[in-house]
Write a structure and sequence with these properties.
21% strand; 29% helix; alpha/beta
Amino acid sequence: MLTLADVIEALTSTHPPMAEKVITEAAIDSRQVIPGSMFVAIPGEHVDGHNFVADAFQRGASFALIQHGIPGSFQTLELVKGQSPNLQIDLDAPLCLQVENTLCALQQIAHFWRRKLDLRVIGITGSVGKSTTKEVIAEVLDQRYRTLKSPGNMNNEIGLPLTILRLGRGYERAVLEMGFYVPGEIAFLCDIALPEIGVVTNIGTVHAERAGTQEDIFRGKSELIQALPANGVAVLNQDDPWVRKMAKLTRARVFFYGLDPAADLWADEVEGLGLEGIRFCLHYQHETLHVSVPMIGQHSVHTALRAASVGLVDGLTWQ
């Protein structure tokens, strides 16, 4: 589990051996604080998280990451890179950790902690279908591996680091959504998370008012595929011409899924069963599997294909 010593090492490059108090998870909303967690006070446009530090401590937080003074007489430890902090304090009492920028510090801690963990990360991006795909992939992988998935739509520069800090050493897989609004955003998230498998659902014009043209969205989503290592796998939608183009942008192995027999894993004989879901045939390496899944709508075939693709490239058998 993440400890205070890990946080201090991530931010100062010094490892205090006595600061082994475990941090259960991190939170930016004091209402979501659980005992033993670290509250990250992020100043926003309308609300400043520093105003809720006392509430976080009252709800059981052990530590608070702050960037300026707060009301109340709480112990405060200033963390400066290259300097070993003075730990002649009561580590059983609420403690504020003061840094220059709390959001940057959160990201830096997640970057540090990810590299301490021996696990495989599956990154998911696309214009639509990310959340459902994440849920089904996590359910598939959880049959063999202890798997954590990003909760809700925590897919940005705040949500992804918070999810990383929930990972303990017992986890073997993490399934993380990655959203895109500005160039470089997914590349930044990949630098924190180090995905080995990247899944792209599709390229549309959802949020085009913020993300730009379809070409802009293509380039932004491609950052996931470009970040994969040579021994990784890019799981791409054969049926989407924009996603197909990404195959030329990665050094990783490419695995196509879709309704096209040219794909590595493909489906046909799709039949809607109403509220009972859908039925179809999966084809992979000259084998066929008849499948019924309790998901509604023809688009759910692609969701199932993505999950099956990840399972197959990650070592699971057909069954």
